[in-house]
Each structure stands twice: as structure tokens, then as C-alpha cells.
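As a representative case, the lines below give one protein's residues and C-alpha cells.
***
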Amino acid sequence: MKNKYFLFGLLLWAISSVSYADINHEVRHAQKLLSKGQYEQALNKYQQVAKEKNNPLAKFTLAMFYDNGWGRPVDPVKACQWYDKAAQDDIPKAADALGRCLSLGIHREVDIEQAAFWYQKAADLGHHYSLCHLGALYISGKGIKKDTAKGLALCQQSAEQGSLPAMLRLAHFYLELDEARNYKSALHWFSMAASYQSVRAQFQLGIMVRDGLGIEKNPLIARSWFEKSASQCYIPAYFQTALLYFNAPANPDTGLWYADDLAKAYLWLSTTIQRSKDNEEQLQAKKRLEKIQEVMPQTWTAELDVKLQAHLKKYTVDSEQKQ
């Protein structure tokens, strides 16, 4: 359960048409219960405020109860029903969520035209990333006339307004869509996202530079991008960083790794073993770590393990949202 300041900030961000004074008066008690993890009491209070006061924030928060499984099983249908009610009160995030509900047919039959309407409504209310959701409908062409160029333009409009998720999604469109593949554009938008310290963008730049997609191959630059991402606890970057240190050019005088590369290979292989969710990665990391340990001075182990534990502690503190 996130702390009370995060929760209240999240709820305030989600709305635009209800004044802070109204929010504070109507739902302060319910919010305090929620911040303490008293889910049942909070749910009852929000339901009371939604029914008796027709409070938009209460409706939106009830949707989040069922969407996130706060104190109860996740229930997409009930979540969408409450998003539907909150969207009618011009809550931007609720309008965006309703678009998703309608595009997937969760609480009503699939209705792409209505999904498009609500995505546009959410964007008009200030939830810029909804333009990217709308663009994805045009790109897919399911239930709406396919128009890839229009879809990309909508998502780019969102990205240009500073939406980090839109930057990432637009970059992936250019990277993966057969009919719109453009590595230069993908590099541009991943670079823009990386400038906002996006670990996913840093990881993707590592892949593109490593593989020479739209740019000359350069293992050192690729390793730098992977390591930036890995240093911020992005799990997929661990093994890729480790591989590039493990495969680094040998010292011509010894035929072995340079000291810095040897130490970094040990650290990132060990982190992969500890944190990777990919069994094959773990297996390959263990095999390579054995080779590292055959030549690494034993006197290094204690100091390197201290660094390893410091990183793993950082992982538990601040990285869950990045995975």
C-alpha cells in the first residue's frame, strides 16, 4: 500500500473539474482510512459519499479499489462500471480508463467508436497520453478505419506534449511496425525518453546500438546505455550489461579481462542470478560467473559483494515501479 501522500496526490492528479476544497470536504475521512490500509471502512465511506454527494472523486476512487485490488480481489467489470460513472463527471483519467474498458468489452460490448470518443475526451481534459491510445486504435484498424499515419501523428502529438509513456510507445511503433518501421525515428524518441531518465528507453537504446539498428554498432556505447538502466535496477538490463563486460576485449598482455571489466562482469552476473526472472538467463549467468571466479583474485570478493548487496538493497527500496 502506497503512503498517504502518494495516494492523495494520485487522486488529485486524476481529476480536474473538482476543486481542492470540495475534495477535501467530501472525501478527507475516506482518504485517511484508505491511507491507513483500512480498506473495508474506506470503501464503505467512498460508497456513501458517491451515493449521497454524487462526488466524482469518490466514484473514481471506487473504480481504483476494484482495478488495483485494494483489500479485495481485482474485479475489472466493477472497476469499469465506476470508471464509466466518474468519466461522466469529466475526470480525465476515468475517461481514459473508460476508453480502454470499451475497447476491450469489459463491462459492455466492444464499442471502438465510443472508445475513440472517450480517449479524445480524456485528451481534451488534459490526459495527453490518451491520444496515443486513440492512435493505437487507428494503427490496429480493428473496429475503425485503419490509418497508420493518423495513429502515429496522434501519438506524436502526445509525445511532443511531454508524455513519457507516449515517447516510449511511439518509439516502439517505429521500431516494430512493418508498415512504419523507421529506426531513426525510434532512436529519436527513445533518446527523448532517456533524457527523462527512463530505464526502459535506456535499455532499448542499448539494444539498438548493440545491434546497429539505425546507427553504427558500438558495444561500448551499448554497454553504457545498458549499465545506466541496470544501475537503476531495471531487471532486463542486468544480463545484457553483464554479457558486454564478459565479452569485452582481453588484455593483450595476459589474455584475460582487464581488472575493471572483470569486476563489473562479476557484479552484473551476480545481480542477474539474484534478480532475473528468466531461468535461461540465470543459467547462462551462473556458467559465466564460474569462469570469472576461476581467474578473479579471492581478495576482491568481499569488497565486490558489499557493492552487490548495496545495489540489491536499492532494488528493494525504489525499483518495483520500474519492472
Notes: The two ends are 17 Å apart (CA to CA).
